[in-house]
Amino acid sequence: MKIIKKSVSLLVVFLVLGGCKRKEIKGNIGDRVAVKKPNVVYILTDQWRSTALGYAGNPDVKTPNLDAFAKESVNFTNAVSVMPVCTPHRAALLTGKFPTTTGMFVNDLYLPSEELTMAEIYKAEGYNTAYWGKWHLDGHGRLNYIPKERRQGFDYWKALECSHNYTKMPYYDNNNPEIKYWKEYSPFAIVKDANQYITEHAKDDKPFLAFISIATPHFPHDNAQKKYKDLYPPESLTLNPNVTEKFKNKSREELQGYYAHATATDEAIGTVLAKLKELDILNNTIIVFSADHGEMMGAHDVRPFQKQRAWDESIKVPFLISYPGIDKQKGAIINAPINTPDILPSLLGLSNIKIPQNIEGENLTALIKNPDSSADRVALVMSVAPFAGNYNSLPYRAIRTKQYTYARTPNGPSMFFDNAADPYQMNNLLGKPEFKAIQLELDNKLNGKLAQIGDEFKSRDYYLKKYNYTFDKKKPAVPHWEFEVGKGVVQSPKPVK
């Protein structure tokens, strides 16, 4: 009899608990997701500098969807790329570590599987993980298939290492090793698939991390769709005063396609934002819009397409973030810099997930939830081993505060700008007696940031030798193109002992 009574009691408890569970699930999406950790939608674009947006005050470019999103999110006006070039930024973003710590400081390296990454952390917390678009962290050639064990924790996969053929963009569909091609302009194709995934997973018990990596507005710019290029007659476009005479015509020509890609990409991103609203999951979703680096576009006598430099055109990127519970903070401005390694710990903080101890970035959750336009921080920017078009440039370490930029090369101080008084960075203050005290203070702050991460700031050759990296002799970069003829060698940051 005791056994029977105990069984009946257990059955009653089971039914009660089961009924409670069903009651919770019957509620609408907005009610149900309140008990889950927040979804994360991270939208990463390529080479989209911070000033190429309507909400940033650009008089020419049309970005209505992101302009509207800026009013619904927190805007970091001085977001900087820790190293303004593709692979290093992406590695720092996914690991929360600096390029000198991971060894990921040039393009086309393989991010070691030993590194703990964004998707692996979220997946361990019960998240579904998905990735679309440009990856640029595999180091096994730009067109080769990336198997599941090299996807750093992302399960759903519609991606490729690297391509900028926006009209016939290749990709791999999850575990199918046969290369495929998006059937339309790649930003539109990618967001359609992402929206389908988000729709299918919106009602899941598990939250999702959806990482949407769109390769525009990176060059080539001439393959932008005509209807968007027609919006931007080159002769009508405004150039900043720091664009030199030599590059004015070329810059306007490139800006036409650059802005065309930006407007089309804004339209694509708008469909993602609209889908999240339609599904009523905005109240439990963290949304980020940003880019990996900027674009010089003729400023300071540096030709279009170039990055890796310490000027704002190269290092500053857009960064808008919306999060569950955002209310009076909508449209708030934060002038304190956010740096690439800060992003992962801040996302984890907003997601109520414990931050791993070896992450080097700072959790800025408190600042994001309590925006203060007067707050300030020091963001470290670096060029460890200049390569490709910047091979002849000197390595540097720099800091960006809300007001100042200060940089050193191995030859000594190289840049000192008051960005509030001189937003186009045309008046280098180095050595001016009236700014001597501020320069010394900035130099001490730079030394402090380097000491924090154990960065000795040595020569390019030192770092290349340390990690046994080899550049091509004719094209001073990791020779990723050799994989296309079966001769490629994977280069990965495993220090030489």
Automatic annotation (TrEMBL):
Residues in the signal sequence: none
Residues annotated as domain Sulfatase N-terminal: 38-352
Keyword Hydrolase: yes
InterPro entries in UniProt: Alkaline_phosphatase_core_sf, Sulfatase, Sulfatase_N
MF terms in GO: arylsulfatase activity
Domain of life: Bacteria
PANTHER family xrefs: ARYLSULFATASE FAMILY MEMBER, ENDO-4-O-SULFATASE
This protein's record includes keyword Cytoplasm: no
Family affiliation: Belongs to the sulfatase family.
UniProt entry keywords in alphabetical sequence: Hydrolase
Taxonomic source organism: Algibacter pectinivorans
Protein name stated in the entry: Arylsulfatase A
